Amino acid sequence: MSYENIIVEVHGAVGLIRLNRPKALNALNTALIRELNLALGAFSEDPQIGALVLTGSEKVFAAGADIKELQTLTYMDAYLGDAIRTWERLSYFRKPAIAAVAGFALGGGCELAMMCDFILAAENAKFGQPEIKLGILPGAGGTQRLARFVGKAKAMELCLTGRMMDAQEAERCGLVSRIVPSESLLEEALRTAKAIASMSLPIAMQIKDCINSAYETTMTEGVKFERRNFHAAFATQDQKEGMAAFIEKRPAKFVNR
Ligand code: CO8
Hints:
The chain is of the alpha/beta class. The protein has two domains: 6-197, 2-enoyl-CoA Hydratase, Chain A, domain 1 (Alpha-Beta Complex), CATH 3.90.226.10; 200-248, Lyase 2-enoyl-coa Hydratase, Chain  A, domain 2 (Orthogonal Bundle). It has eleven helices and ten strands. The strands form two sheets. It has a six-stranded mixed beta sheet, sandwiched between helices. The two termini are 24 Å apart. Bound molecules: octanoyl-coenzyme A (CO8).
């Protein structure tokens, strides 16, 4: 499969997708999102793939939705075409997904990064939801996910002013899990994804489901959901192997990998 707006690579058990529209600062247009969804579908179905890294270039993750494409959108186009529906595919990707963000992650770019399970940021990363400056609002989950990541006060401030925050501030407020030196961002993201991909895939998927349910449900229901998943772990060969390996003082070799 050849792509024009993304670059797709496989690194062992890790699928890597690079957003690649350098002249438009990786602005996200319909064609790019279509390709991204195709690549996600392929990695989803590929049993060799245990984790995903989504990245941009060293200068920009993505400067948001393609404003030139959106400029002429009418309400009827947006409503009847259910604009943005297709942007959500990443949030349904069931395997662990890491966003490796260098440079700008703005608007839809920040929203795409937040659809991943966690964000690793290069020192030069800059995050923001500047839609208000264009006379629109975040439309791919930005108001909802940002508020859950960083809390109401900062989400309000960022979305209402459209200002950018740097990597340090993003780490302090919980938007990113770690800051990595810019020159080693991709290497570190791949190393982290490979470590995750070496674990039991069904267990990693259950962990992802459980943590995500913490944002969708009550504590009591969430704990119950976790317990059911915990019980189910004992039906896997990977639990037998993981515990046997610990007791025999050897590295685990998970079956579902
Ligand atoms: N869309 C289209 N083109 C863009 C975008 C964009 N979002 N961002 C940059 N570009 C283009 C510029 O037009 C320019 O093209 P050209 O060379 O042809 O003039 C080129 O990329 C380089 O950009 P700049 O010259 O502006 O580069 P700077 O380094 O000076 O500035 C910035 C970098 C600060 C990132 C600046 O480009 C900028 O502010 N970009 C817009 C950021 C923005 O407002 N993003 C939000 C977009 S709206 C959105 O994301 C809504 C999401 C909801 C989903 C909707 C789906 C239907």
